[in-house]
Amino acid sequence: MSSKLIKGTFILTLGTFISKFLGLFYVIPFYKIIGGQGAASLYQYGYVPYQIFISIATAGVPLAVSKFIAKYNALEEYAVGRRLFRSGLILMTMTGILSFIVMYVLAPKFAPLVIASKEQIYTVEDVTTVIRAVSFALILVPFMSLIRGFFQGHQSMGPSAVSTVVEQIARIVFLLVGAYVVLNVLNGSIVQAISVATFAAFIGAFAGLLVLLWYWWKRKRSFNELLKKDKGTMNVSISEMYKEIIMYSIPFVFVGIAMSLYQLIDMMTFNKAMAELGKAKQADIIFEILNFSSQKIVIIPVSLATAFAMTVVPLVTQSFVSEKREMVKEQLDQTFQVLLFLTIPAVIGIMILAEPVYTVFYGYSELGTEVLRAYAPVAILFSLYSVTAAILQGINEQRFTILSLLIGILLKLSLNIPLIHLFDVEGAIYATAIGYSVSILLNLFVIKHFAQYSFNTVFRRTLLILIFNVIMAVVVFASYFALTLFFDSGKEMQALIVIIICALLGAGVYFFLSFRTNLLEMLFGERVVRLKKKLKISRG
Questions:
Q1: Which of 112-121, 247-256, 302-311 has the lowest mean pLDDT?
Q2: b or e along 12-49 (b: 16 or more beta carbons within 10 Å of the residue's beta carbon)?
Q3: Can you tell me where the transmembrane regions are (predicted)?
Q4: N or C end: fewer C-beta atoms under 10 angstroms in the chain?
């Protein structure tokens, strides 16, 4: 892999990580502004459908276009890539406008699926207003995504990274300031504040697009210079290219909207199940805890772990295509182990420290603590699904990602209401866990069969990781118990102190055990070897 590509991948990964980080932690001030009481559930009622619509509108085309531009650039057929880019911009503009119209027009039809009872806090009209507010972003996002794909196809990752971060910053600033002004300056309603907050997606997209257009203006001359070097020996029709692009991108669409589909099922069934249990008045508040508050915290270890593990996946693709089976095995071993090494301790930490963690983010809530503790283990499943689906793409068996996801979704859909009746709010979590577990098992079976991969090493190493986590958990639990004698974990600042102390102690124990047993060296290679040498020199 070239140093330029490695540098570009690092820049893009860093930009994506910063964007995700901002997207995870803005909820703390946002929650304080809107004041809880189910307001965030109204935000989710609009945002989840938007995420599904945006995935359908882009249909994985930007990613596929970047791949094809890179392919034809390597063949010095630069005109083919430019022609594809121009047609792609027209296509994305059309699908964006069409998706906006469909979402805006169908909002009154979709809202009744969410509002199951008149006893709920919000009405069908409230949900319709919020869905329509967020739908405007569909006009810009597909167009902007394709321009990012064009830059990435030229191995120019900076514009995509910068625009992603700027988009997120603009969205969050407008979201927070807008919601605050509506509620505290204009004395508006919660519905108006949430509508402004969801409309922030359009503002963010506009800011990100301006950044990309600026980069295009700066680099247009160099792109045009490439056209002068075009060989002009290939005449590829647009229809042929799009046929291949669609086949390539469909699995990405399904994987990209997997979590949103699970959330959509909760939106369509949770309030109904709560109403049947006689809890319609509390449904919006409980849904907020389940599908917004807790879910945002659970996604933190998922984002961190998959960011590290996903860096190995392109190498798996390269080794598999080159038929280097032994190297594929080593890389898969490393991918799974790194994922579990990072995710398991984070999950255990969240489970033990559920009360102070939830308090720091949203304020004390007994129900929030219980839901977060039950939801935390699902982070491991979210991570494993993302990585196994990416590996299937790498070994060219992406068709099975659609099958495994559909089976998981059907299980979630069929089990959600019965499990909610049996276990209340936690039933929705169990249905999600079952759906994801079955999808992961199917993905692992396909990987084992088509990559001729044995999980023996991963099983042995996972056992070691679990032993270290048990030791770490004892230390964290004992520390937490001792600290609660002096600190109240139901108060925000004291809860933060408890988290910091327990996290440092737990991470220290886990790192020490992993370092002394060479587990870190086996997982992260040369960097740890160099660290050990430095430590030996300093000791000497």
A1: 302-311
A2: bbebbbebbeeebebbeebbebbebebbbbbbbbbbbb
A3: 9-28, 48-69, 89-107, 127-151, 172-190, 196-217, 245-265, 297-316, 336-354, 374-395, 402-423, 429-451, 463-487, 493-513
A4: C
